Amino acid sequence: AQRVTQPEKLLSVFKGAPVELKCNYSYSGSPELFWYVQYSRQRLQLLLRHISRESIKGFTADLNKGETSFHLKKPFAQEEDSAMYYCALSGLGGNTPLVFGKGTRLSVIA
Amino acid sequence: GAVVSQHPSRVICKSGTSVKIECRSLDFQATTMFWYRQFPKQSLMLMATSNEGSKATYEQGVEKDKFLINHASLTLSTLTVTSAHPEDSSFYICSATRGGGETQYFGPGTRLLVL
């Protein structure tokens, strides 16, 4: 079964502190992993995808197939990072739907 | 580029009426559109996958006769909630992709409240 698990509903960190949002997945085959972010009163938008191996807004995520994890990390949190973060997976090849985790709300405290 | 719009953004209707929600890709042709539903404080759940010119593929547990999806063009998909009931009240979100491994772009969502 396809499943994405985000164990933390809420994560609060101080500004400047490191951030790690956890994501584990189960999938039979080779999935593509994503992180989406939803800022207050805005639509869901792509933050990063594992195949592009980009760093966006200082966030990185490494796919660990052994641990079936795709944790999102940032070395120094900023107040503007406060948002809802969703980990998601899909099959490779495009045109396949996303399976979302339940999301983690990140709150960065000044 | 890659903007997806939804209309209306918010709708309130009486129980038993039908509601149509539009999803448009404004600056690209979307071979595939997806419809998700999000209940309060829960994650997005896929309802159906819609390919232009063909019948939508519904997820298990989603009634195709209740949630009618039409993807008549490469820029427009519609979701009609027929004979809406209060339990259909939710946040409906669409996404669109050009296909071929391209990312999905999400609409802003439509909040439906059935009284």
Instruction: Name the average pLDDT of chain B.
Output: 92
Straight-line N-to-C gap of chain A: 40 Å
Number of strands of chain A: 11
Largest sheet descriptor of chain A: 6 strands, mixed
Helical content class of chain A: under 10%
The SSE order of chain A reads EEEEEEEEEEE
Shape field of chain B: globular
Q: Identify the biggest protein-protein contact and residues per side.
A: A-B, 20 and 24 residues
Separation, N- and C-terminal Cα atoms of chain B: 37 Å
Nearest-integer average pLDDT of chain A: 91
Oligomer: heterodimer
- Structural class of chain A, by secondary structure, is mainly beta
In percent terms, what proportion of residues of chain A is strand? 35-45%
Radius of gyration of chain B (Å): 13 Å
**Tally of contiguous helical segments of chain A:** 0
Short description:
Chain A is mostly beta strands and 110 residues long. Chain A is 0% helix and 45% strand.
List the main descriptive attributes of the protein structure presented here:
heterodimer, A: 110 residues, mainly beta, 6-stranded mixed sheet, 3-stranded antiparallel sheet, globular, B: 115 residues, 7-stranded mixed sheet, 4-stranded antiparallel sheet
Describe this structure in words.
The complex is a heterodimer of chains A (110) and B (115). Chain A is mainly beta. Chain A contains no helices and eleven strands. Chain A has strands at residues 3-5, 10-14, 19-21, 24-26, 31-38, 45-49, 60-61, 72-74, 83-91, 99-100, 104-109. In chain A, strands 2, 5, 6, 9, 10 and 11 form a six-stranded mixed beta sheet that branches. In chain A, strands 3-8-7 form a three-stranded antiparallel beta sheet, with no helix packed on it. In chain A, strands 1-4 form a two-stranded antiparallel sheet. In chain A, a hairpin with a 7-residue loop joins strand 9 (83-91) and strand 10. Chain A starts with a strand and ends with a strand. With 115 residues, chain B is mainly β. In chain B, 0% of the residues lie in helices and 52% in strands. Chain B is built from no helices and eleven strands. The model of chain B has no long low-confidence stretch (mean pLDDT 92). Chains A and B meet through strand 6 and strand 10 of A and strand 5, strand 9 and strand 10 of B.
